[in-house]
Write a structure and sequence with these properties.
This protein has helices spanning 13-25, 37-47, 63-73, 85-91, 104-115, 121-130, and strands at 5-9, 29-34, 51-55, 78-82, 97-99. It has six helices and five strands. Helix 3 (63-73) links the parallel strand 3 and strand 4. It has a five-stranded parallel beta sheet with strand order 2-1-3-4-5, with helices on both faces. It is α/β, with parallel strands linked by helices and 135 residues long. The longest helix has 13 residues, at 13-25.
Length: 135
């Protein structure tokens, strides 16, 4: 999955920065970041990402509403990130939800599931050894 272009949607600036660094360390290209539902929709139209990683609850709007709007125009694989995975799954039982806090390997596995690619044990072990927990 190298060169995978990811749109990251997160309204907490520090978490956004950490997740961007983590995704780039994993070899992904964070093509854009957004902090609101409207920004996410705009950036998805502008950058045409391969994957969207979004927080469920945003200060302005919601990640789930952003994904719904984006996927109506252009179906795009996505991973939801939430401190309350049960609530996120309640909105969409088939949603791929990564619960905070999570490890690098958890995010890599979720991205692989969204993209229908099995995770690489070697790359996950390398990344986990470098930074065991992010959020």
């Amino acid at each position: 999955m190298p060169n995978l272009r990811i749109l990251l949607v997160e309204d907490d600036g520090m978490i956004s920065m950490l997740m961007t660094m983590m995704l780039e360390e994993m070899g992904f290209n964070v093509c854009a970041t957004a902090s609101s539902e409207a920004d996410a929709i705009r950036e998805a139209e502008r950058t045409l990402p391969d994957l969207i990683v979004t927080d469920v609850n945003l200060a302005e709007g919601s990640g789930t509403a952003a994904i719904a709007a984006i996927c109506r125009k252009r179906p795009t694989p996505h991973v939801f990130v939430s401190a309350d995975a049960a609530a996120a799954r309640g909105m969409n039982p088939n949603a791929l939800v990564l619960e905070k806090p999570f490890h690098y390997a958890d995010l890599e596995r979720a991205i692989g599931q969204a993209m229908h690619v099995p995770p690489s044990p070697r790359s996950a072990a390398r990344v986990v050894a470098a930074r065991p927990t992010l959020l």
